[in-house]
UniProtKB/TrEMBL annotation:
One of its GO terms (biological process) is response to auxin. Belongs to the ARG7 family. This is Small auxin up regulated protein. It comes from Rubus argutus (Southern blackberry). InterPro entries: SAUR_fam. It holds the Pfam family Auxin_inducible.
Length: 99
């Protein structure tokens, strides 16, 4: 009798980025794996990142979510959570997280 253990995920590959034109489509919601959610990051052009829900355990990520709530409330212009920081800042912050 055997069982399968989930593979160890490379932290650098756990962050997935895709360009967004701001239009919400059904296919975008279907390409998010279980255990992940999408956020939009950037100042002028927003980029979509699919990130693991384990980031919700990180105090610095929760600070970003609080800033997002202050700036956008619950009405996010992209249809998903919009993080109010530059892409470089977001990548620097999330690269220090363990998955």
């Amino acid at each position: 009798m055997g069982f399968r253990l989930p593979g160890i995920v490379n932290p650098k590959k756990s962050l997935i980025r895709s360009l967004s034109n701001g239009k919400q489509t059904t296919s975008k919601t279907l390409d998010i794996p279980k255990g992940y959610f999408s956020v939009y990051v950037g100042e002028s052009q927003k980029k979509r990142f699919v990130i693991p829900i384990s980031y919700l355990n990180q105090p610095s990520f929760l600070d970003l979510l609080s800033q997002s709530e202050e700036e956008f409330g619950y009405n996010h212009p992209m249809g998903g959570i919009t993080i109010p920081c530059s892409e470089d800042t977001f990548l620097d912050l999330t690269s220090s997280f363990s998955v």
